[in-house]
Amino acid sequence: MLEQKMNTLSLYAQTEQGIARPAIEDALAQALQPVKNDLRKVLIIPPDFTRFHSNAGLITQLLYHMLSPACQVDILPALGTHVPMTQEQWQLMFGDVPFKRMLVHRWREDVVPIGEVPASYVKEVSEGLMEEAIPFSINRHLLDPAYDLVLSIGQVVPHEVIGMANHSKNIFVGCGGPDIINATHILGAVYGMERLMGRDHSPVRKVLDYAAENLIKQIPLNYILTVTDAPGGVIRTHGLFIGPQRRYFEKAVALAQEKNVIWLDKPLKKAVVYLDEHEFASTWLGNKAVYRTRMAIADGGELLVLAPGVDKFGEDNAVDVLIRKYGYKGREYVIDTLKNAPDLGQNLSAAAHLIHGSSDSRFKITYATRHLSREEVEGVGFSYIPYDEAATRYAPDKMKDGFNTMEDGEEIYYIPNPALGLWIDKNRM
């Protein structure tokens, strides 16, 4: 298979400024060199705009121009349950790659069954928390034998469902159907975020590893993995890892644990997290502010989320309705509610999200919004403050990353983008 003939490589930045664009381009060219002349049709699977700072946009753009027009290049953003990319988002992320090359993943309609992970294995890796087999389905384009090569691109970074994002998650969740999306999200939620965030070999990762080893061997798949951060919004690529084997993912995990996990000497009494209005339009995405800080915030502390672009709760209407109905009321509430709530039981990814987005009453969560009303925000269990009021006191353009002392002596910890890290009070570990 072609993916086995590609050159594999691990590239590490030599400075804190990250790997320069020419070096990334050279690495991609080197990886493709053995197979480039044999390719007629290629499928590229990058993340969508919600992972803009992965640098997958640049990599996709470089690959497109290396391969086209000698072969047909199609691009399938790994949307998962997210809404399709707009033309404006596409241009911001992928530059001059033609918008018409985009294939849209519709997670409820465009998937084909490929098998299942057996119940015995699920029970084993979940420590008995789940005992049912997990059916897998993925986007039909991945199974098109006309593709000579499938390139999955994405950032390895701490993640609340699987521990460390990307690798086969990009395929099975980003391009997966309802069964696997629901099962993985609820498995991660009941297992416990604190037990898996920032770690490899979580129960969800083990389930996906099983599927990767047993259900998709026929796909000519290769992975291009990045480790990045973005101080001041400027993307720095600290590592680039290319290869089909899991060991390249493990190298990326080790580097991401170094670059994207921030250890704090004391718990945070108040964290202020900014959600870029172009990147975060829902609490479904914006609650990364909750996920990624919950291990750092003190009991009785406060998380203030500055969310100027958030205008809804769910990414699609069905999920939005469920969030408004049940709210972010904690793990035990959700688990108990599932016993008598068939609408929530049929959308377990939403149930998992409700667990993830709650502090379990351990600390206060306040959303500062422009587009959602006080009634809407408080209706799902969060506290509310008007955005302009919050942003006047905690001005995003004046805050520095990390600890800030306000004029009245209040100490806050400011995070400009929660998607790029995991913050942990070292005394909790």
% residues in beta strands: 15-25%
The beta-strand count equals 18
How many structural domains can be distinguished in the coordinates?
Answer: 2
Which percent bin holds the helix content?
25-40%
The CATH topology of the largest domain is Rossmann fold
How would you sum up the major sheet? 6 strands, mixed
Summed over residues and divided by their number, the pLDDT gives a mean of 95
CATH class of the largest domain: Alpha Beta
Poorly predicted runs are none
Gross geometry: globular
Describe this structure in words.
The chain is α/β, with parallel strands linked by helices and 429 residues long. The protein has two domains: 2-259, 3-Layer(aba) Sandwich (Rossmann fold); 263-428, LarA, C-terminal domain (2-enoyl-CoA Hydratase, Chain A, domain 1, Alpha-Beta Complex). It contains 18 helices and 18 strands. It has a six-stranded mixed beta sheet, with helices on both faces. It has a six-stranded mixed beta sheet with strand order 15-14-13-12-17-16. A two-stranded antiparallel ribbon has the order 4-5. Strand 9 (221-229) and strand 10 (236-242) form a beta hairpin. Helix 2 (21-32) crosses helix 3 and helix 14 runs antiparallel to helix 16. It is globular, with a radius of gyration of 21 Å. The mean pLDDT is 95.
